[in-house]
Design brief:
The chain contains 1 helix and 13 strands; from the N terminus they run αβββββββββββββ. It is mainly beta and 183 residues long. The protein has one domain: Immunoglobulin-like (Sandwich). Strands 1, 2, 6, 7, 8, 10 and 13 form a 7-stranded antiparallel β-sheet that branches. The chain starts with a helix and ends in a 6-residue tail after the last strand. The mean pLDDT is 83.
Length: 183
């Protein structure tokens, strides 16, 4: 092999290594567009009358046959505003593993979820860092305590002729209603 060919192959291997180590941004679609950019708002401290924290269980894999055999799953976190008129503000979407360690934060700005809007995050099948006890913690708020957004996990996978799918529901773990100040 001549020096030119060796240099070419070495460059290809270096580029493959470089892109293989890149962390994926969960807000980018396949063509590199930020799918949440239009929903991001730049308000650091939202003055909302209602706030809630929701726990959503997510399974990146489940046990199959024995505790040593695992079935990998693709998990989708779905956040849906069910109101026809009012907006929901998403302040944090954090992903935790089975040991309770924060694995990643999915947003660094607040998100505006307008009436009837939805957003989704996908934990890919090969991303098993969360384990069987993974979960999302979502901090959200609104100007009405009566709003009831839906936060769900949808897990699915197929291997050969075997397929599995199931959903999990978000559970409120902390609510607070802010009363207007009388100053």
């Amino acid at each position: 092999m001549n020096l030119k060919a060796f240099t070419f192959y070495l460059s290809i291997i270096f580029l493959l290594f470089l892109f293989a180590c890149e962390n994926k941004n969960p807000n980018l679609n396949r063509v590199g567009e930020d799918v949440l950019e239009s929903k991001e708002i730049f308000v650091e401290d939202l003055a909302l009358s209602f706030r809630d924290t929701v726990y959503v269980p997510i399974y990146s894999d489940i046990y199959s046959e024995t505790k040593d055999v695992r079935f990998k799953l693709t998990a989708t976190l779905s956040l849906r505003n069910t109101s026809l008129q009012d907006s929901v503000y998403i302040e944090d979407i954090d992903y935790y593993d089975s040991q309770g360690n924060k694995v990643r934060a999915y947003i660094d700005k607040n998100l505006l979820l307008g009436p009837m809007q939805s957003i989704e995050y996908v934990v890919e099948e090969d991303d098993t860092v969360g384990g069987t006890g993974a979960n999302f913690i979502i901090n959200w708020g609104a100007n009405k305590a009566s709003l009831k957004p839906i936060f769900q996990g949808v897990m699915i996978s197929t291997h050969g002729q075997q397929g599995i799918s199931f959903t999990t529901e978000g559970v409120s773990i902390s609510q607070s209603i802010q009363t207007p100040s009388t100053e």
